[in-house]
Amino acid sequence: MVTCYDAWSARILNTTDVDCLLVGDSLAVVMHGFESTVHATIEMMELHVAAVARGAPNKFIVADMPFLSCSKGVEVAMDAVQRLMQAGANAIKIEGASHQLSVIKQIIEAGVPVMGHLGLTPQSIHNLGGHKVQGKDEAGVQKITADAVALEAVGCFSIVLECVPNKLGECISRSLGILTIGIGAGPDTNGQVLVLHDLIGTNPDFSPKFLRRYANVHEVIGASVQRYHGDVVAGSFPTVEESYG
Ligand code: KIV
C-alpha cells in the first residue's frame, strides 16, 4: 500500500502493481503544510479522495477518517463515512480502538469495510508525546495486542501497525486472521505501507529509520526548475519550434 493524495500521482500509481492506495490524513502535513494530521478536515479528505478516485479507477482506495470524526458519536461518523465513500473510497481507515469500537462495528454493519490503525496513531500525537515507537513495554504490548484482537472481532478487514517493535508486528500478524500492514513495524507484517512522498524523496529532512528512499524527487524537481529558469533567462526557451507560427 502507498499513500496517494491527488489525481496526477494516482494516474502514475494506477499503472503500478501496488495493491492499494491510501488517502491518508498525512496529506494535512505533506500537501497542506500543517504540523500534524490533527488539521485534516472531512472537506480536505473528501476532495483528495475524489481526485485520487478519478486518477486511479483500477485501484482499491482506502480513506482516512479525519481527527475526532469517530469520537463525536455515530451520526457524525456515518456522515463522514458517507462523504468519503461517495467521493470514491472503497474502504475507510480509523485510528485507535477502545472507545470507538461500537462506532467501528456500526460502520462495518452498514456495509463499509474498515481498516484499523494501531501503534503510533498520529491523531493522538499530543497524548503520545511525539512520534515515538509504541509497544516497547509490557503494558504497551498488552494494549496494542488487545486492541488488535478487538478490531478483528468487530470485523475490520485489516490493521495498519505503525512504529512498533518488529517482534510485536510479527506476533500480532501471526495471531490475527486478518491482514496487517506495517509502517515501521518490521518485515513480518502481511503488507507494508509508505507515504509516497517519503519513498520518492521529496523531503530530504525526513529520515525515519523505517524509510527507504527509491528516488530523489526533491533534487529532480529543484534541478529541473532551475534549468527551466536558466533557459528562460538566457533566452533559449522557448525556441521557434516550441512556439506557434
Ligand atoms: O495518514 C497516513 O498516511 C497513514 C499512513 C502513514 C499509514 O496513516
Overview of the molecule:
- There is one protein chain.
- With 245 residues, the protein is an alpha/beta fold.
- The protein folds into 2 domains: 2-214, Phosphoenolpyruvate-binding domains (TIM Barrel, Alpha-Beta Barrel), CATH 3.20.20.60; 218-245.
- It is built from 10 helices and 8 strands.
- The protein has helices at 7-13, 27-30, 42-55, 74-87, 101-109, 125-128, 138-154, 166-175, 196-199, 217-234, and strands at residues 2-3, 20-23, 60-64, 91-95, 114-119, 158-162, 179-183, 191-192.
- Strands 1-2-3-4-5-6-7-8 form an 8-stranded parallel sheet.
- Strand 3, helix 4 (74-87) and strand 4 form a beta-alpha-beta unit.
- Helix 1 (7-13) crosses helix 3 and helix 3 packs parallel to helix 4 (74-87).
- The model has no long low-confidence stretch (mean pLDDT 97).
- Bound molecules: 3-methyl-2-oxobutanoic acid (KIV).
CATH architecture of the largest domain: Alpha-Beta Barrel
CATH superfamily of the largest domain: Phosphoenolpyruvate-binding domains
* Cross-sheet strand order for the largest sheet: 1-2-3-4-5-6-7-8
Low-confidence stretches: none
For this structure, the quaternary state is single chain
Continuous helix count: 10
**Percentage of helical residues?**
40-55%
Shape: globular
Query: What is the number of independent domains?
Result: 2
At CATH level 3, the topology of the largest domain is TIM Barrel
Largest sheet report: 8 strands, parallel
SSE run: EHEHHEHEHEHHEHEEHH
Mean model confidence by pLDDT: 97
Beta-strand residue percentage: 5-15%
Small molecules in complex: 3-methyl-2-oxobutanoic acid
DSSP E strands, number:
8
Radius of gyration based on Cα positions: 20 Å
The N- to C-terminal Cα distance equals: 47 Å
Secondary-structure class:
alpha/beta
In the CATH scheme, the class of the largest domain would be: Alpha Beta
